[in-house]
Amino acid sequence: MLGHCLSRAAIAVAAVALLAGVAHAEQGRDGHLKILYWQAVSTVNPYLSGGTKDIEAASLVLEPLARYDDSGTMIPALAAEIPTVGNGGVAADLRSITWRLKQGVTWSDGTPLTAADVAFTGAYCMNEEMGCNAISGFADVSGMEALDDHTLRIDFGVAKPFPYGPFVGSTAPILQKAQFENCTGTRAQTCTAENFGPVGTGPFKVDEFRANDVIVFSANEHYREPGKPAFASVTFKGGGDATSAARAVLATGEFDYAWNLQIEPEVLEQMLTNGKGVVVAGFGTMVERLVLNQTDNDPDLEPDARSLHLDGANPHPFLADPAVRRALSLAIDRQILVDFGYGAAGQVTCNILPAPAIYASDANEACRTQNIEEAKRILDEAGWLPGDDGVREKDGVRLSILYQTSTNSVRQGTQALIKQMWGQIGVETELRNIDAAVFFGGDPASPDTYMKFYADIQMYTNNFDGVDPEAYMANWSCSEIPGPDNQWLGGNISRACNAEYDALVAEMAVTASLEERAAIARRMNDIVVQNQYVIPLIWRARISAHANTLKGVGVNPWDSELWNIADWHR
Questions:
Q1: Does residue 14 belong to any structural domain of this protein?
Q2: What phi and psi values does residue 219 have, to the nearest 5 degrees?
């Protein structure tokens, strides 16, 4: 009898040991994952780039306090819970928010995450010498203090009805103080090792980084969730184009996941017949738009003047004229652009803020109808008359546009169509396309980034994390105009400075009512759109593809597309 009991005890001990071993082995059980972003990554520090591909690659490693799930709901990441007035995390006067960190979270080097890391990250981004990409999310922050190892309080200089700008979403994750404390201010861009290989708390860590090419990740053995991630390693490949990326998943099966499939709908449909993968899509806040440079970008200007606002002293020679900007918008048939390049993955939009629905303005719907004759009339009335070659001119200035975008077949098709439309009203257009890794890159020395904007008009898509547009709309404020003083990382790419707009930014920051906030946001949208600082074209769905064998993918138009990669598995 005694021997029988001992035998059962021994079996129980062995079973526990076996289960422990299995649990330990669960991480990495599905081997290797291959991801293809045809816009190659230039940095793994999202604070130094506005490129979506850089921000999303970084999200495998760096995490915020909270993020948005695929329904647009804010959920905790490194935080134990979402602070609210109800749970005491947000002060009754709305002038502070207190975040409590999850217990037991460590960096990938095994050291503990503390509130000091969070406070450091805030100071890192708010350093005026840096030019932080996420700075609009830190609006009105007056102080930040680590109350203990797991508690951080953020103070605001005004009542903040939406206090979730700092450290929420993939654009504002937490950096390790020990790694980045010597990389602040003007030194931020020079810390290559840190920016290419940040220590993080996320499911993966960087093993190898080759700028504008490939990143190799491995599972973070210190990741806080047992058995995750399911993949032992990830190859994150960049380069090529959207069509080849789709083919690599849907036709050849060479990759498991392909991002941002901005390709002709008929091409995508044909690839799906191979039966190797599926397409996932979701409409969020992405808008393909034209940005009209309000400053002179003449290459003959001194470098300290080209495409710089200079307090309004450097206006564009013809795009500073509202008549020209309005005529350019009227000449575009947006439905043709949707039909040609997007199909069900696009809709005509007349707003830069198309969603959520409460924020969508109905004051700009006339843009849905092309009006060539009205465009001509406006230009005639403003004195822009056709020359001998048919190109309009005034006072020796020709309406000759350099129109640039990233290299992509749909975008080049869109460029060709718009060039033809503008030709009908007497506007000459030169087309230029730039490799996406460079165009959306964060190198302040490059002349070819969209933030440098050495062209007259450029086209790309932009969006924002989450469902509250306060930080996004603040991008068009005067203080957000890019230049060397902020490392060319300001969000006001058009370089327009509008006093009414700035006043609305300040008003929204202190407005609590959702209805009133929505009304302010709609007015801000209308200022940008009706002044044609930006010409909205297409409300785009996020379109990506993954292999049939890849499970757990949740397309997310509100945050990083890779937001739940820790849950992906075979």
A1: no
A2: -60, 140
3-state DSSP percent of the chain in helix, strand and coil, to 5 = 30, 20, 45
38 part of a folded domain: yes
Instruction: Decide: 513 and 519 in contact? Cβ < 8 Å.
Output: no
pLDDT category at 514 given cuts 50, 70, 90 is: confident
Tokens for 568, please give them. 């992906």
Q: What's the N-to-C CA distance of the chain in angstroms?
A: 46
Helix/strand/coil for 270: helix
Do 443 and 302 share a structural domain? Answer: yes
Backbone angles phi, psi at 13, to 5 degrees: -60, -45
Long-range contacts, 311-314 (Cβ 8 Å, 24+): 312/497
**Cβ–Cβ < 8 Å for 183, 194:** yes
pTM exceeds cut of 0.85: no
pLDDT tens digits along 473-489: 999 999 999 999 888 98
Q: What is the pLDDT of residues 336-347, one digit of tens each?
A: 999 999 998 999
Residue 6 has pLDDT above 70, yes or no: no
Q: CB-hemisphere CA count at 13 Å for 22?
A: 6
The CB density around residue 253, as the number of other CB atoms within 10 Å, is: 16
Print the domain residue range for 114. Answer: 32-276+548-567
Query: Cα dist. 410→208, 283, 450 in Å?
Result: 32, 18, 18
Total domains present in the chain: 2
Residues 221, 109 share a domain:
yes
20 domain residue, yes or no: no
CATH classification of the domain holding 504 = 3.10.105.10
Tokens of 32: 């290797």
Whether the pLDDT of residue 17 is over 50: the answer is no
Check residue 19 and give its pLDDT.
44
Where residue 7 falls among pLDDT bands split at 50, 70, 90? very low
Q: The tokens of 358 are what?
A: 């409460």
| 381-386, long-range: CB < 8 A, 24+ apart | 381/323, 382/321, 382/323, 382/324, 384/318, 384/321, 384/323, 384/324, 384/426, 386/426
pLDDT > 80? residue 417 = yes
Whether 407 and 425 share a structural domain: yes
Q: How far apart are CA 229 and CA 234, in angstroms?
A: 11
CA neighbor of 403 nearest in space, from 472, 328, 466: 328
Is there a single domain that holds both residue 326 and residue 388?
yes
At 25 the pLDDT is 55
User: 508: which DSSP letter?
Assistant: H
Mean pLDDT, the chain, whole residue set: 93
> pLDDT per residue over 349-372, tens digit each?
999 999 999 999 999 999 999 999
